[in-house]
From TrEMBL:
<dbReference type="InterPro" id="IPR002931">
    <property type="entry name" value="Transglutaminase-like"/>
</dbReference>
<feature type="domain" description="Transglutaminase-like">
    <location>
        <begin position="58"/>
        <end position="113"/>
    </location>
</feature>
<dbReference type="Pfam" id="PF01841">
    <property type="entry name" value="Transglut_core"/>
</dbReference>
<dbReference type="InterPro" id="IPR038765">
    <property type="entry name" value="Papain-like_cys_pep_sf"/>
</dbReference>
<protein>
    <submittedName>
        <fullName>Peptide-N(4)-(N-acetyl-beta-glucosaminyl)asparagine amidase</fullName>
    </submittedName>
</protein>
Length: 480
């Protein structure tokens, strides 16, 4: 990376040699090996370029490479109250991660590239880097986060030759323990739980499922048959597709004359709760047309749109299976009311960066929970937030997008009334088979009248000669 000449301004300068640190920069944590001299090809003057490590000094100099950018940006993140950490890529790059309470996970932020939440940028983007070690450095420890930034772990593993994997884990654990030695017990407990447990950010999924009730109820009251009801839902889906294709920050679309059922005064109010779940609203134009546009944060709409598209597909499919749409029809699985959400999830294992445990509950088939060692059995535990007690009456599983031989066959659902210390079997399934990909299967829990604040799915799989690799499947949530 070239630097601008202090005398010739925009002219590029090039490193000529390194120099020892000078006294006037000692106070800013400069390394002797990181103090460079740059010469300008236009004016032949020499520019000193010290590699300051003190972010406060960087606010003054406003010069640097990726390390300075990340250092200064992380300072800003912490100043604004975000839990932040530096990410060191051993192939010569540095960036930042911030923990997002809204997303319930660490989020990739690269101030040098101006890109956020795109962890595969370095492996799949223009950089096409051959990663080996990516280490997160924070106030409470150091962590190996390499798996989050690659989908070629086996290739990356072949390049990790500095030390053995157990030795690396031990070293990082020792450093983390040293960083935390003066922490109070409450903070240690909080960090220990955060290291192992993920929080589901899926309240919008529950709101979307609940919002279909007034729509189905309106179909029944207006004596729509299932074919006309399906047409209304398909029209609404087309409207949302048009909205999705509009600019992110100014999403807007018009309900045109084709959607006569929606534009009528009878049907549109029934979609009000669903629009609210999508952070959308209706506006009447001066010419009498009805527009659908953003009601609040566009990020909320972006998170919810994939969920509602898949929920609409599922609802249309279930409508086709209804013999008759009447007052008795609006029940499970056509409607999925009172879905549990916002819980804590702990799993036997997961595949970073995208096959994490919370993907089992995010309401979209674009993601899935992946257990690399699932061929020998696996489990996932869902703890209800705030220790509230629920009676589980049904649950649903969906097959993943590939490899039917990896689908779950035998499992048990358990409930716990003491947060997971003791368990009671609520349901048991054997020899289950998914006939196609993205197939949802629903199961009623017969052992009712048991209040629990934690639920678990334990999957035992006896591998046959045809089974290769891991068992991968998607769990799409539990419903009280």
């Amino acid at each position: 990376m070239s630097k601008a000449c202090s005398w010739s301004l925009d002219n590029p300068v090039f490193p000529t040699n390194s120099s020892k640190s000078i006294d006037d920069v000692y106070d800013h944590s400069i390394s002797k090996s990181e103090f460079f001299l740059h010469s300008c090809k236009t004016c032949s003057n020499v520019t000193r370029f010290p590699r300051y490590n003190d972010p406060l000094k960087l606010l003054e100099t406003r010069k640097g490479r990726c390390g300075e950018w990340a250092n200064c940006f992380t300072l800003y993140c912490r100043a604004f109250g975000y839990e932040s950490r530096l990410i060191l890529d051993f192939t010569d790059h540095v960036w930042t991660e911030c923990f997002s309470p809204y997303l319930g996970r660490w989020m990739h932020l690269d101030p040098c590239e101006g890109i956020h939440d795109n962890p595969l940028l370095y492996e799949k983007g223009q950089l096409e880097k051959s990663l080996d070690y990516v280490i997160a450095v924070s106030r409470d420890g150091v962590y190996d986060v390499t798996k989050r930034y690659t989908r070629k772990w086996h290739e990356v593993l072949s390049r990790r030759v500095i030390t053995t994997e157990p030795a690396l884990a031990s070293i990082l654990s020792d450093i983390t323990r040293e960083c935390r030695k003066n922490f109070v017990s409450e903070m240690l407990l909080k960090l220990d739980e955060r290291d192992k447990i993920r929080r589901c950010v899926d309240e919008h999924v529950t709101k979307i499922y609940d919002a279909f009730f007034p729509i189905i109820n309106q179909f029944v009251e207006q004596t729509y048959d299932k074919y006309r009801a399906r047409e209304v839902l398909e029209n609404f889906k087309r409207i949302l597709i048009s909205l999705r294709n509009s600019p992110f920050k100014t999403r807007r679309t018009t309900i045109n004359a084709v959607s006569t059922d929606l534009s009528s005064s009878k049907m549109l109010p029934a979609f009000g709760q669903l629009l609210d779940a999508l952070s959308l609203k209706c506006e009447i134009g001066v010419d009498g047309t009805t527009d659908i546009c953003l009601a609040s944060d566009p990020v909320k709409t972006s998170l919810a749109l994939p969920v509602v598209f898949h929920a609409l597909d599922d609802l249309i499919h279930n409508l086709n299976d209804c013999e008759k749409l009447n007052k008795e029809a609006p029940s499970w699985p056509l409607l999925k009311l009172n879905r549990i959400c916002c819980g804590l999830v702990l799993a036997s294992g997961e595949e970073l960066p995208f096959g994490i445990a919370t993907s089992a509950f995010d309401g979209t088939r674009m993601s899935k929970w992946e257990e690399p060692n699932g061929a020998t059995g696996c489990w996932i535990i869902y703890k209800v937030s705030d220790n509230r007690m629920y009676e589980l009456v049904s649950y649903e599983l969906m097959s993943a997008n590939d490899a039917p031989e990896r689908d779950p066959m035998d499992w048990i659902i358990e409930g716990s009334e003491d947060g997971g210390s003791s368990w009671r079997i609520l349901d048991k399934q054997t020899s289950q088979k998914f006939d196609k990909r993205f197939q949802r299967k629903t199961f009623a829990v017969k052992s009712q009248s048991f209040l629990a604040n934690a639920f678990s799915l334990k999957h035992s799989f006896i591998s046959s000669g045809s089974l290769l690799g891991e068992t991968i499947y998607s769990l799409r949530g539990a419903f009280p």
